[in-house]
């Protein structure tokens, strides 16, 4: 019964698809015939306009035919000396060059079109040309130049109310930021794109923005959120397809939904999604789409354990990608071909195939794919007990993660900040230009009235002053935003490097310990367990500090001050650290006044003492000492002095202890990890409890930390 239902459904789908393309083909033939008739029966501008429209129509189906028609239109436009028609012809030729993967030829035509557009002050056409220039630069991997072109497109688009080109430029800027791992900026620009598409009434663009947001959340592994945006985009694209019969938007959504289902472990659903896209691509004859579908099917079959079928699909995809010159898709195909070989008992051949993909990904500067390949190679080497190569792969992973999360992939942060400043400045300039144009028209209309002229000038001065005031305020806001961004970047860097690294390493060692348990002697076992205990303690401390610091940054941590017995707090906190001190043979001595009470939040005070003493243990050599003393003065201030016999610090390092942007953090005397976050948290908690902190240190002579807090009456 189920088999009959499947056959019936398949037949209906095929019939529907054939009907769809029959109707589409009939409409296309009619449109082509109409345009050819206009070209045949007319001369001059009307013929050239029809030629350019026909070239645009052939753009996706027959690029060579489109190029021939557009070149003929350009020659005719030059003979008639019609500069605007020449501009349009150059633009169409630029589009065709891009489709033919001849970026240099494409850009030469766009530059010619832009020259003419500048002569006519045609800001709307300038915006379209600059958008396409940016796309060419992005295709060539010149991301900064691409951002500059998109930025100019936005300026001219806003001046001419070309909201569609403006939205597309914002969308492309968001894509550039996403590719380079700057997801917060990517989301910001894609939302701007959606707003401009709404102004233009461009529903397709609105759906595209939702699709791009889905791609971002997929990268961030927020699969439910990504699925929500893909479904939103799919709903819009399906509505559009009912009118224009264009299924491209529907296809890309189903492809990404299939990938989400695959990542979620729903391989059957994923297979259905991708097979649906394959049927449509085969019906339309899209070689690129067919190759992508086979690549995704190969990945699905690999995850399902059907390695022979996976290799068949992947080999088809790779052959097509090589024929088309599509370099960006090849690394992931090589990866899964290699994984199939490993699973079928050919590990050496598999590793060689995976390394082909890695080399291609490095050439393409595809950092996210490099990350995936290094992860898979690390797992393979661990299974083969090749710890040296496994560790090397993990080190490469950490290096790439740091680069991406700190915004250094392809584009330096300073360059991006420059783009932001240019963007803000140009927005203000565009506002001023519009206002100046209004003032010019007002002056022209009221030239006979001297009084109105003076009032208009005064009005312009007032507006300029207001804009200047707002500009100064905006600069101040930008400074605050930069500080917040530094804190956020620090947070992500700690998660990526100091937290993810130990967890991944710990997982690898545990897996190795499990696999090799019977072959390890007692000393090796104790050594591995000691490393795991040390790593776990570091992760636990780091998580505590991260949680407390994150809560403090979003102002969700309330300060509940009470009168506390200082000696009790210090004693209970130090007791928990005695084991760490004893392991390094460090003696902690207490000289506290049992009568002293401080006005402070109990949890915050414990965190302050714990972090300072933990740091002292880390940076004190084996056999050293730590002394903790308390005292009070006549100003109702209680002091806690924690002095160690550790390695000490140079003045330049001492000056950067509380700087969240500092990237220089030392390891302990026995290679203990340090992120620098602990002391930043200490300073914030002390100040929020109306206290102060002072640190003195000399290299080789130890460190002394003095914390003062209000004394409780």
Helix and strand topology:
Elements: H1 2-41, H2 44-58, H3 63-79, H4 83-99, H5 103-119, H6 123-139, H7 143-160, H8 163-179, H9 183-200, H10 203-219, H11 223-244, H12 248-263, H13 267-284, H14 287-304, H15 307-324, H16 330-343, H17 347-364, H18 367-383, H19 387-405, H20 413-445, H21 450-516, H22 522-553, E1 561-565, H23 566-575, H24 578-583, E2 587-591, E3 597-601, H25 602-618, E4 625-632, E5 637-644, H26 651-654, H27 677-688, E6 692-697, E7 703-710
Parallel strand pairs: 2-4
Antiparallel strand pairs: 1-3, 4-5, 5-7, 6-7
Helix pairs in contact: 1-2, 2-3, 2-4, 3-4, 4-5, 5-6, 6-7, 6-8, 7-8, 7-20, 8-9, 8-10, 9-10, 10-11, 10-12, 11-12, 12-13, 13-14, 14-15, 14-16, 15-16, 16-17, 16-18, 17-18, 18-19, 19-21, 20-21, 21-22, 22-27, 23-25, 25-27
Query: What is the arithmetic mean of pLDDT?
Result: 80
- CATH top-level class of one domain: Alpha Beta
- Unreliable stretches: 1-27, 407-416
Count of DSSP strands: 7
Please indicate the percent range of residues in DSSP E strands (runs of 2 or more): 5-15%
Widest sheet: strand order?
Answer: 2-4-5-7-6
| N-to-C CA distance | 85 Å
Q: Please bin the fraction of helical residues.
A: over 70%
